[in-house]
Amino acid sequence: MDSDRVMVALGYHGDSFHGSQTQPGIRTVEGSLVKALERLGWWSPKCLEMSSRTDAGVSVRMNLARIDLPSEVSTSIQRANLLRALNDNLPIGMIAWGAERIPMDTRIRHSTSRHYLYRTEASHDWPREIDVDTFSEACSVLQGQHDFTNLCRLDEGKNPIRTIDECIPWKTEEGRIIGISVKSRAFLWNQVRRMASAISGVASGRNSVEDIQSALDNPDVPVDLGRSPSEGLMLWSIENPHTSNLIDSALPETNWFTAPPDDVRQHNRWLSLARLEMSTLLEREWMRLLKQA
Q1: Cα 130 from Cα 136, distance rounded (Å)
Q2: d(CA 202, CA 226)
Q3: By C-alpha distance, which of 38, 43, 200 is closest to 118?
Q4: DSSP of 140-181, one letter per residue?
Q5: CA distance to 38, 82, 104, 142, per residue, from 192 (Å)
Q6: What is the SS3 assignment for 117?
């Protein structure tokens, strides 16, 4: 059967799925997309490839899927109708908001950049006062090429060397630090969550900038600087040679994000509000992006 290759931009709430990869008997992002393609009559073996794998609880503004559609479908359907058809068959909590035709030899996993945001202010030990300079220093230590053995969950045989192109404070427009913004071509399993824990640990005094530097410089000496919860993590965007018409690099407006309460007894209640704010941010973005499609 003749087919054409399409790149689809997807978003999803992390608490709606048990991760992105297909797992028997469990609702996942990839599994839900397969079911949608089957209902539409667009499914064929090996027609689908996801760009990035995400763990359970990790929310995504933008992931990419490569879909090889039957030629009679791809040549006759407009982009808006393609997205409408997919969204009519996807579960609540997941949305297809962009699509582009791409060359048949394109490998969707070969991205030039992946951009994550982590809301570190949701950490249980987040202090009332933040030393901006020290927080920024902790971020900058992680930039560049390092051995991240101590700051990831390393699969056997996996190369622990990664280059972090950007690790900077994520701030509101008013200048309040709410988390970190991290970019790299590729990440290791749990890497951003462990980076977030190490950096928030500097803010709280749980660990120091020197501890982070030592963990990078001495990968053969095991050290555990913690792993932040998946709920604070968001895959913001993915870039490759075909995404320029889908996204811009601007960060979202976040002045409406509430600050953690001073009363630690109210923190758990505020965490529920923070999760709702992150979900609302995604819904606002998807509505905006879908209007542009």
Answers
A1: 10
A2: 12
A3: 200
A4: HHT-EEEE-GGGS-PPTT---EEEEEEEEEEE-TT--EEEEE
A5: 34, 33, 32, 11
A6: strand
Average pLDDT over every residue of 200-206: 96
Query: How sure is the predictor about 146, in pLDDT bands with cuts at 50, 70 and 90?
Result: very high
What domain range includes position 68?
3-107
Strands 177-184 and 3-12: unpaired
What confidence category does residue 150 fall into, taking pLDDT thresholds of 50, 70 and 90? very high
Cβ–Cβ < 8 Å for 149, 158: no
pTM, rounded to two decimals: 0.94
Question: What whole-number distance in Å separates Cα of residue 147 and Cα of residue 163?
Answer: 9
Domain boundary among 85, 107, 129: 107
pLDDT in tens, 14-48: 998 887 777 777 889 999 999 999 999 999 999 99
pLDDT (mean) for 105-123: 93
**What does the alpha-carbon distance between residue 119 and residue 254 come to, in Å, rounded to a whole number?**
11
262 & 135 share domain: yes
SS3 call for 114: strand
At 209, give phi and psi (nearest 5°): -60, -40
Determine the Cα angle at 242 with ends 191 and 74, to 5°: 115
- 267, pLDDT greater than 90: no
Which three-class secondary structure state does DSSP give residue 276? Answer: helix
CATH code assigned at 133: 3.30.70.660
Give the model's pLDDT for residue 260: 93
Q: Going by C-beta distance under 8 Å and a sequence separation of 6 or more, which residues neighbour residue 210?
A: none
